[in-house]
From TrEMBL:
Pfam families named among the record's database cross-references: Metallophos
Protein name, as recorded: Metallophosphoesterase
Species annotation: Belliella kenyensis
InterPro entries with a match to the protein in the record: Ap4A_hydrolase (IPR050126), Calcineurin-like_PHP (IPR004843), Metallo-depent_PP-like (IPR029052), Ser/Thr-sp_prot-phosphatase (IPR006186)
Segments forming domain Serine/threonine specific protein phosphatases: 64-69
Length: 217
């Protein structure tokens, strides 16, 4: 199956819905790179929608952990961390759950188990890139696949990442590392982007949806 990979949503639910209209579940595997939450107005609905998609399409939809999900997990597990989730969007997310009369606890077990990456023989997808510094999956490594802002190292696969928002309308390709960054800053009022690839990593299409102002104002 082809791959449809979606960048950082950050609570931009209406924009997320519009981009999901481009997904064909019969022929495409859906992968979202993490950071469903924080920043935008509707993190609870973004979580619930993703949770329901995974229930309905368990074999061809995958949702990865971003650094904002990790901050949420650490907050509730009382883990020592230099990052305070409440100060990075968490207070707003908790208020949104309360205002929508939704229970975050209904989704926490699922969020806690979100994987750090997805890969096949040709494509590797993670929230941030492989920095080449330390273990990319080690939680205490500040340059891991949740936090690194470095230009990714070149691997034997095409990498798809988010995490560092671009100012351009479309995802950006870095040939020196064979990497696509698909975070086009939805929560900044820019675009939410997706990329479609053949399962061998060949580009099919780039799709960018302007941020719906309901999501951020």
């Amino acid at each position: 199956m082809a791959l449809f990979i979606i960048g950082d949503v950050h609570g931009c639910f209406h924009t997320y819905l519009k981009l999901l209209d481009q997904w064909n579940p019969k022929h495409e595997t859906l992968i979202q790179v993490g950071d469903l939450i924080d920043r935008g107005n509707l993190s609870p609905l973004s979580i619930r929608l993703s949770f329901e998609i995974k229930k309905s399409f368990p074999d061809n939809s995958f949702f990865l952990r971003g650094n904002h999900e990790q901050m949420m997990i650490d907050h509730f597990q009382h883990a020592k961390t230099p990052y305070n989730w409440l100060q990075n969007g968490g207070e707003q997310v908790l208020s949104q759950f309360e205002n929508l009369e939704m229970n975050l606890s209904d989704y926490q077990p699922w969020i806690n188990e979100l994987p750090l990456h997805w890969e096949n023989d040709h494509v590797l997808i993670s929230h941030a890139g492989f920095s080449g510094i330390g273990d990319p999956f080690e939680q205490n490594n500040s340059q891991n696949v949740l936090w690194s802002r470095r230009r990714p190292m070149k691997l034997d696969k095409v990498q798809i990442i988010g995490h560092t928002p671009l100012t351009s309308e479309h995802p950006q390709y870095y040939p020196e590392s064979n990497t696509w960054n698909i975070d086009t800053g939805a929560y900044k009022g820019n675009y939410l982007s997706g990329i479609k690839l053949e399962d061998d990593g060949t580009l099919i299409e780039l799709i960018s949806i302007p941020t719906d102002m309901q999501d951020i104002k």
